[in-house]
Amino acid sequence: MKKKSIDVCFSPALFHLYDASESIVVVIDVLRATSSICIAFEHGVRSIVPVSKVEESSAYRAKGYLVGAERKGEMVEGFDLGNSPFSYMDPKVKDRDIALTTTNGTQAIAIARNAFQIAIGSFLNQDALCNWLKQQNRNVILLCSGWKNSFNFEDTLFAGAVVHKLLDSFELTDHRDSALAAMQLYHLAKDDLYGFLEQSSHRKRLEKLQIEDDIVFCLTPNQTDCIPVMVGDAIYNLNVLQSM
Amino acid sequence: MKKKSIDVCFSPALFHLYDASESIVVVIDVLRATSSICIAFEHGVRSIVPVSKVEESSAYRAKGYLVGAERKGEMVEGFDLGNSPFSYMDPKVKDRDIALTTTNGTQAIAIARNAFQIAIGSFLNQDALCNWLKQQNRNVILLCSGWKNSFNFEDTLFAGAVVHKLLDSFELTDHRDSALAAMQLYHLAKDDLYGFLEQSSHRKRLEKLQIEDDIVFCLTPNQTDCIPVMVGDAIYNLNVLQSM
């Protein structure tokens, strides 16, 4: 059987170069949207609707949703939840629906809407995600959310970790240089991800917010087996969907 | 004095994220447009007009220009010159004006037209370029041409070499992750650039064309002191302009 392909896209602004129609697109926003989404499902959230604008969330709140919003790294005033994975480790989120908007992550999800399927990836669900991807017999595109469309390290390093784990089972395409670069950077960084990111732009932005604990947690692999996937307009926990 | 900034842009499709109006933009297309441009000036070419379409070249030919064109790595039939640096090491180019169109390089030059100044970089003029950039007291953006807007290794590695040489004299910006990634990849590759590119997409494309000699040459630093710069619609040898 011909191997399926694996690609890395460094920015939503480059996503139009990839053919996603037959691919699973894994959206990656390690600090912190996709990490929080993974951990939210681990703590029993029922669904998460990604919304692009803070204002749209109000309509969801009126329908009984919890609302989460982050802009420039901080929780938006008057919202129930921010972008810290710790804020989703709360019994109040169990069985709830959440409307979430973040600077980069939810925008990347929006841009991937033409994909065959959208999944959510982070170090927190790394191995579960990789094992699932291996079983799907689909091309895979790892879409790094970046920072306002700029290349960033943390998303690239996670993409590199996935390429490292899947390269034997998949083949590279014309976009191979991004996949190989991500994997090489991951190899450089993997023994001390936190230290490697010391000089990164996002770490510097987040320094002001004093969320070192968030960062350490978001860089810790395999805290959950949840695989969040888009179904219609919302993200659900695939493990729950499959047990229904 | 406040240090000027140095940035790396991995693709012309990301260039709109950078403020180029006060910056020197170094256009990089190592395999092979900007390498050929550097070596053309070393061999006495007077000027090179980058044109976007093969068809536009005819008008220049009528005006006495030599015409060079490459598409998908090959010289276009009926043209005087291709994209191999060796084709510009010919006495026939001395004192001539050339109209040149290539798949990626001339497109990147076109997209950088809002820059304060455009310069042409390649391993072939590496140290001369770096020394000149240090003296300009301007922000610098290293623009990788990539392959049809995709990230590529060879341009990134040269950008990384320049960051490595200039980092002490410049400062990083919000786009720092691309600059640091380029530099880290350069450190991985620098002892055997040719071997490192073995798996790269462009090497694989060029394999079919049997131009290994071109590639080895294009990866050899410091074959010329020429610094090609845009003045109006054409590229000139800065060293010649300054001696006039």
Tags for this entry?
six-stranded mixed β-sheet; 244 residues; five-stranded parallel β-sheet; putative 2-phosphosulfolactate phosphatase; homodimer; alpha/beta; 11 strands; 35% helix
What is the fold's blueprint, element by element?
2 copies of one chain form a homodimer.
Chain A lengths: L3 E6 L13 E6 L4 H10 L4 E4 L6 H6 L3 E6 L2 E2 L21 E5 L3 H7 L5 E5 L4 H11 L2 E6 L8 H14 L3 E2 L4 H14 L3 H4 L4 H7 L4 H7 L9 E4 L2 E4 H6 L1
Parallel strand pairs in A: 1-8, 1-9, 2-7, 2-8, 3-6, 4-6
Antiparallel strand pairs in A: 3-11, 4-5, 10-11
Helix pairs in contact in A: 4-5, 5-6
The gist of it:
Chain A has about 240 residues and is of the alpha/beta class.
Give your account of this protein's structure:
The structure is a homodimer of 244-residue chains. With 244 residues, the first copy, chain A, is of the alpha/beta class. Chain A has a single domain (4-243), classed as putative 2-phosphosulfolactate phosphatase (Alpha-Beta Complex). Helix content of chain A is 35%, strand content 20%. In chain A, a hairpin with a 2-residue loop joins β4 (66-71) and β5. The interface between A and B is medium-sized, with 28 and 28 residues.
Report how far the terminal alpha carbons of chain A are from each other. 31 Å
Shape annotation of chain A? globular
Strand order in space, largest sheet of chain A: 5-4-6-3-11-10
The chain pair forming the largest interface, with residue counts per chain, is: A-B, 28 and 28 residues
Number of discrete domains of chain A: 1
Main sheet summary of chain A:
6 strands, mixed
Total strands of chain A: the figure is: 11
Portion of residues within helices of chain A: 25-40%
What would you give as the CATH superfamily of chain A? ComB-like
How much of the polypeptide of chain A forms β-strand, as a percent range? 15-25%
Mean pLDDT of chain A: 92
**The CATH topology of chain A:** putative 2-phosphosulfolactate phosphatase
